[in-house]
Amino acid sequence: MLLALLTLGGCREASVPWEPAPPQSPEAPGLDAPSTLPRSRVNPDTSTALIFLLALGPWSLVAGWSLFWWLEHQKRAVAERSFDARAPLRNGHAVIVGQVELEEGATGPAIQVVIQQRGREWKSKHGWHHRWTETSRAVRVRPFWVRTFQGERVRVEPDDRVMLRDDLSRIERTSRFDRVRFAELTPGETVHISGSLFGANAQTPGGAYRAMSQEPVLRPSRAAPMVVSTERPGETAQARARHYRGWFVGAAIGALALPAVVFPTASLLGLTGETVRAQPVATRHWQRYHKPKNSPGYYVQHYGLRSVQREGERARVLTDECSEQLWSCVSAGACPSVRYTVSVLSDDVVQIGIGPQLTDGRVGLLSVLAGFLALLFPLSVFGSRPWYLQRKVVDGDKGPLPDFIAPSSGGFGPR
Q: What is the model's pTM?
């Protein structure tokens, strides 16, 4: 509320002098409230709906959505970090931690994600740019083993639904406009793997290693894909929590600041306004020149009204822009009283009519801000996801496409 009062100090007032209004006939019917509003104002009911639709609604929705996912990802991060890697293996849903091992004599990665990308380049007034866009994705898997920190050896049997949380650490160019990116799980890496564990109860007495047929096996569950991660526990969830926390803070500030910055008069009148009747005492008329881009200029007519409301010995002077119809009515002495909405905090916070109103310009600004939010928030949420949560991996940078270099072969890569 204080910010709204301070913001009102920047409002521009017309410099045209006031002309005394003629005496108003007490028997004249005057005008109804909607007819007194200036042409640039939106009626109070529509203004209220637009405030909720374009200002409070979108920013509060983003703040609430972000708060939910901030707390949800924070909870996931805490749960992942609290996992006890030294707990004994048990059948059912399980998370195992250890180092990757392959069959004796096997080489190459245990899991490989192959992402084909197509490149394009273009030149604008700001120079050259290029972008690599994913065209296809393939997952190649083989059974492997994980040696836990307790010495247990668990066979892992992933399928092509597996989610590999690892870096896209290798790139191979196949032509000037084509390249392949690889994410690979290699022997010796430390991993956290979640899935369904079988055979964990077949442990031999004394902690000896199981026979091959008795080794526990980790397979994907029916309800969810197997997750194989080389990241630290909780790292992705914590990063997502930070991202949503930033959006929550920004959206909450936006929801609180917009009323004070964009429509301070309407927000103050909505909170502290009261409707009163006042007697017109002066009018004025001025015009301003508007020159739209690529269009001829024109003059816009404006009309102002000053009225006095008397309560006993107290007189309140109320001033606001009005409609041409009201200006003509007062100039003809046919409007004995006019209704205003005025704040109990200050007589300077006032609007003609019943209820707070937005101007056309404020509605346009709110529409732009709401559209910007509706575009930026999804782009930010989806664009900040790690590559394995994205439907398509897109990379871009300044400059033309790099020169083509013949790719090297390795693992499951192109030969």
A: 0.80
